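Students often ask why inverse folding is considered easier than folding. One informal answer: many sequences map to the same fold, so there is more than one right answer. In these notes we will look at a single instance of the problem. The structure comes first.
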């Protein structure tokens, strides 16, 4: 069953009865901001609710809160929102102000429009004729006042009752309101359906899931989510366009991007003690392995020397009233020691990544980068050195990326360090780094310029794979790319080509080690990594990384483990992996599925 995105209407009638709800015209105020609107006075609600539109217009932020709303059908909806405070005055007496504290607001909540033919009602009902009531035509209330503020919704004088079947007049501190039935309302003006739910049979749902699976394995395929950018992706791009700046760092005009917060300021705050237990655990492991401890300290020193993280003084530490600490540990990846910064670490149920927008995928798809790489006879490849670390953080975001380290001196207080650049691990780092790279490609270059098109069409995150028709074009492209991107702080290195003369003029530190050896005629067919595949440069072929058959008995577990390891961005292995999958489904031999390995 697939429920659609739904809006919860707080005052929508559950039947077609013609009933007037208590509706008052009011003025909402927050500081120097005010808003004239209508308020529904609801004795049946336990909580006062302000619609998100009104909170935005009044500049209200408040504290984060989750609220469970229970409908008359006993359906419970948990809504993520905020508790806000403001003041309210009746339009009839704007000098009289009442305080409302802790009203709940969230994007998912809504109130329906109301139309009351006051003139017709006063003409029909005698007890309403002398009351100061104005016509209400398609009024859109932005506030629902519940029983948590009884002094605002209860009568201040006896209720005026009319004949049976007619509305009552209720005088509250917010003015005169009407409540009750009226035959003058036309129920057909407003539809009663507010939710849509589509139901699929188990068979149809299974078919849809299998169809999506085959789409992923069929080339070319592009998700509908990529075609139509989501609202969150649009918000992420707006943040980047609005706040990205360039700052001078050691003579280079580097890019500084904001962290893509879902809400600003983010509701995050953690003390140093939140990660101290994890730091002690890491220190105990390092104490048992001196070689790992030395490697760990070496990686920390690299970050310090490069200026990617800096220690905080006590004065700097006291400047920020909110901060967030990130734990870290070491792993081995491709025979290298790497420190992992866990930006998904939770403290009191919150984590940094939970409050960050990942942003859209700005790079060209991996498949199309590989296909363009095979388009022309002369191929070149390179990658941006430490791409994430070439993009700086804004000062306002740095306190949310702090870490602790004691350099092996476990008896001393931990030193507080703060990231100055995008770290690996934050959900928005790939989007922010790619946006910066593509933004620099547009500087002083027309849309048809070959360098700009290369960055936009031939880069997959930090990897560049490009092919051209002649050696001269390739040499020119290498030089222009290297020069232009260096101006933005993006240094291209690990250059390789299937024609060694194309990169022969580059210094050794910019060429890949295998290409440098090839140029010295010490290697017959150098190999380079190409987006998970292996590129054999001399023969200009892409090959799959080989995997050894799992040791031991051939079992379903080992078969699926092997299948999971196969990386196939071009889809050439689909005919074979499909046969394996079908054989697994159709064979259940006690001796294992040896048939699959024939």
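Output (designed amino acids):
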């Amino acid at each position: 069953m697939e429920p659609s995105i739904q809006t919860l209407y707080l005052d929508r009638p559950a039947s077609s009865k013609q009933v007037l709800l208590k509706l008052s015209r009011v003025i909402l105020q927050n500081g120097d901001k005010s808003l004239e609107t209508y308020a529904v006075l609801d004795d049946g609600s336990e909580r006062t609710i302000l619609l998100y539109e009104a909170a935005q217009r009044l500049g209200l932020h408040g504290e984060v809160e989750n609220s469970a709303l229970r409908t008359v059908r006993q359906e419970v909806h948990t809504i993520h929102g905020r508790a806000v405070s403001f003041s309210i005055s009746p339009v009839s007496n704007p000098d009289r102000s009442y305080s409302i504290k802790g009203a709940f607001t969230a994007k998912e909540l809504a109130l329906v429009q109301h139309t009351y033919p006051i003139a017709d009602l006063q003409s029909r009902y005698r007890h309403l004729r002398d009351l100061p009531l104005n016509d209400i035509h398609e009024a859109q209330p932005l506030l629902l006042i519940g029983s948590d503020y009884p002094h605002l919704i209860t009568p201040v004088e006896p209720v005026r009752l009319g004949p049976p079947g007619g509305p009552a007049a209720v005088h509250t501190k917010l003015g005169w309101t009407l409540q009750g039935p009226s035959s003058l309302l036309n129920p057909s003006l407003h539809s009663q359906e507010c939710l849509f739910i589509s139901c699929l049979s188990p068979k149809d749902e299974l078919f849809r899931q299998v169809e999506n699976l085959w789409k992923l394995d069929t080339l070319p395929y592009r998700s509908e989510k990529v075609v139509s950018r989501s609202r969150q992706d649009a918000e992420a791009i707006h943040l980047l366009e609005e706040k990205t700046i360039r700052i001078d760092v050691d003579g280079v005009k580097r890019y500084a991007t904001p962290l893509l917060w879902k809400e600003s300021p983010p509701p995050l705050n953690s003390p140093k003690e939140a990660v101290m237990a994890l730091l002690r655990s890491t220190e105990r492991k390092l104490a048992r392995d001196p070689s790992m401890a030395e490697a760990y300290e070496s990686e920390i020193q690299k970050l310090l020397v490069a200026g990617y993280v800096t220690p905080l003084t006590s004065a700097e530490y006291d400047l920020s009233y909110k901060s967030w600490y990130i734990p870290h540990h070491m792993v081995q990846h491709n025979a290298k020691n790497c420190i992992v910064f866990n930006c998904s670490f939770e403290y009191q149920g919150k984590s940094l990544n939970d409050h960050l927008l990942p942003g859209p995928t700005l790079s060209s798809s991996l498949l199309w980068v590989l296909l363009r790489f095979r388009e022309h006879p002369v191929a070149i490849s390179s990658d941006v050195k430490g791409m994430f670390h070439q993009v700086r953080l804004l000062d306002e975001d740095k306190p949310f990326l702090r870490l602790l380290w004691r350099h092996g001196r476990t008896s001393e207080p931990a030193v507080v360090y703060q990231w100055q650049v995008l770290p690996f691990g934050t959900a928005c780092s790939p989007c922010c780094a790619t946006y910066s790279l593509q933004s620099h490609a547009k500087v002083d270059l027309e849309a048809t310029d070959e360098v700009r098109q290369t960055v936009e069409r031939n880069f997959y995150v930090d990897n560049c794979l490009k092919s051209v028709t002649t050696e001269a074009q390739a040499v020119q492209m290498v030089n222009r790319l290297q020069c232009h991107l260096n101006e933005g702080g993006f240094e291209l290195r690990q250059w390789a080509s299937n024609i060694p003369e194309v990169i022969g003029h580059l210094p050794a530190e910019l060429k890949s080690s295998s290409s440098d050896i090839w140029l010295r005629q010490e290697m017959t067919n150098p190999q380079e990594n190409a987006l998970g595949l292996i590129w054999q440069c001399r023969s200009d072929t892409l090959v799959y990384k080989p995997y050894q058959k799992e040791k031991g008995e051939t079992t379903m577990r080992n078969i699926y483990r092997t299948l999971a390891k196969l990386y196939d961005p071009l889809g050439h292995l689909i005919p074979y992996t499909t046969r394996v999958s079908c054989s697994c489904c159709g064979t259940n031999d006690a001796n294992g599925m040896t048939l699959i390995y024939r």
